[in-house]
Amino acid sequence: xxxxxxxxxxxxxxxxxxxxxxxxxxxxxxxxxxxxxxxxxxxxxxxxxxxxxxxxxxxxxxxxxxxxxxxxxxxxxxxxxxxxxxxxxxxxxxxxxxxxxxxxxxxxxxxxxxxxxxxxxxxxxxxxxxxxxxxxxxx
Length: 139
Known about the structure:
Strand content: under 5%
Oligomer: single chain
Number of strands: 0
Radius of gyration: 17 Å
Number of domains: 1
Low-confidence stretches: 9-15
Distance between the termini: 53 Å
């Protein structure tokens, strides 16, 4: 076992993420991760019509849950997988929440981050004008 000087450890230590986040903080972080994600993001296909067991198992390489599960902070906080059911549990989303925020009939892939951000901030589902304002506010 290598012994380290405590002062050296302070200088070289990497910051540890805060391991307690409120629901709003988790959703806001997810929105930020989606905004910064350089790959494709796809909305979820008709989740309101899927049987619950099928919906909970939904996963795919371009879904918002995959971006969330790639985050080591979310995994450390307990996000179990990139399946929709695990994301709904972790972010405390109802079926209505997941539908309004990520379903293909309500938003496109590029809108999901803005919808999540608005929801984290206000607790309501952002509409078209909220999305338009957020685009112009970014400059």
